[in-house]
Input
Amino acid sequence: MSKNIEHMEFQTEVKKMLDIVIHSLYTDAEIFLRELISNGTDAMEKARYMQVSGDADLSGLPLEIHITTDKEKNTLTIQDAGIGMSRDELIQNLGTIAHSGAKSFIEKLKEHDSKDVNLIGQFGVGFYSAFMVADKVELFTKSITDAPGVYWESEGAGTYEIAEDDSLERGTKIILHLKSSDAEFAEPDRLKEIIKQYSSFVSFPVLVEGDKVNTVEALWLKNKKEITDEEYQEFYKFVGDDYQEPLITYHFSVDAPMAIHSILYVPKENMELRGFGQIEAGVRLYSKRVMIQEVNDSLLPKWLRFLKGVVDSPEIPLNISRETMQDSVLMKKIGKVLTGRFLKYLADLSKKDPDAYLEFYRKFGVYLKEGLASDGDNKDKLIKLLRFESSKEEAGKLISVDEYLVRQEGAEDAGTEIYYMSGASREAIEKSPYLEIFRKKDQEVLYTFDGLDDYVLSMSGEYKGKSFVSAETADLSYEDESEGLSEEQSTELADWLKETLGDKVSDVKASKRLLDSPVLVKSSMGMSSNLEKWLTMMDASPGTMPRMLEFNPHHPLLVSLYQHKDEEEKSVLLAKQLFDNAMLAAGLPVDFPELVDRINRLMEETFR
Ligand code: ADP
Output
């Protein structure tokens, strides 16, 4: 080991990571074993794949993980016969952090929640967990290629050493010099216990001091009736790199249009919602039990990236190259079957167990919307799965678009469209002037509190022959018989308002939809204000876009305004204030200093 030892420094991110691992993580330290076994397994999956595709010859060394301990030296050794690493790969893989999620993981860990160490494997930094229990790690590795073998050693404190070493035939051997406080990990029985808990589904034999600890089997090929709930859960923890149980487990096999065996899982938590950045595709691809690829971005549509699990199809040729896989017709075909089955599963679940479905929807519904916005293929199926609050339900209760349509058909003065209204809260929506006409007509409106919905719904076209229409832009009207301005007076007032408000408005007209409110604004682009906000996100000042102003000709304020419009100063103040009030009711920006100044002046008038 003496020849050409080089001292190297870890990348800053790795240093930070190690610092946290060494100094602030104490709980669940045993997960380091799962991470190292999982790395060894991945390396052997890759080796097996190279063999079956004819790129490597693995004869001689069996694909097994060997774990041995030395109580006296207080060491633990884990050895695999995988693809190993060349010197460059080693520096790249264990000296830097490439994974984009890792940074946010480090940030999160720093913030507080030390329990989340369990998630370490999901962020491509699992190897470093070894430093939770070891104050020195030695690693020997020999690549499956011709590259010379390498030795690596680190105490985790910012630097590592690297040298040439040819003691291995193939694969990787890691020696952990355990901290004195972690001597339990030099006990074979303790190790067996941990492996049974975390790694029983590893697809290669794991031996502790020569004893095989796990049962190697492809759970997805077994008969459902022979699989226990615990097995499904344990398997999930293994493939999903998670410590919690899954929210949904869906195991199925199909023969047509092609043979597929799959277990799909939905995790308990939506990690993206918890601020961890975009998650990676998580359904592993197998062909006849051989793992072809752990992460395949082209298998499922992007919006299904939250799914974990496996899919095995004997129709995937083992010698398929990774490049052709990216855009292969076969991947699309498998992806289509999985997507179709999963959507069907959700539709069934929503009927059989609505509460379970709602739990899924509250956590993962956002992906269905993403799917709707991005994927025309499954539009109707996705719309069917959406849930909304409604003007005809109590707060918090969610209904489907189908329920909405059934009720609309039964209603007397039924509208011809699916009406929705988005806003910051239920209260904000219900207090807005836009809902007045719907209450008057007893027409149900779906409520959305997610800014994305407006965009998704307006883009989703027709569903069962009806379009989604924002309550803001809906073309509903009624004849108000009460006293108010005549048509002529209204036109006169509209002209005056238009002139007074200038470029703030694109048009002004008497409204046929207002009951209690004096005015409302509409986007001049014929869309809801929220959608307009979305689309003009790039524009620094969306509030300055001219708007349509509708006024209520039966409202006393407007009647007075008409009568006093020649009293220049007061009437102009009032007109501008009315406009700003309408903007505020729509959740649109106004010029606050100007508004406050104006209100003060109007208040002065009160006691004149
Ligand atoms: P992850 O395994 O999640 O990518 P790790 O920090 O555990 O993150 O490992 C980083 C990389 O180092 C792996 O992606 C792999 O390329 C390489 N690596 C780790 N352990 C082994 C091993 N036993 N054999 C071969 N390569 C390995």
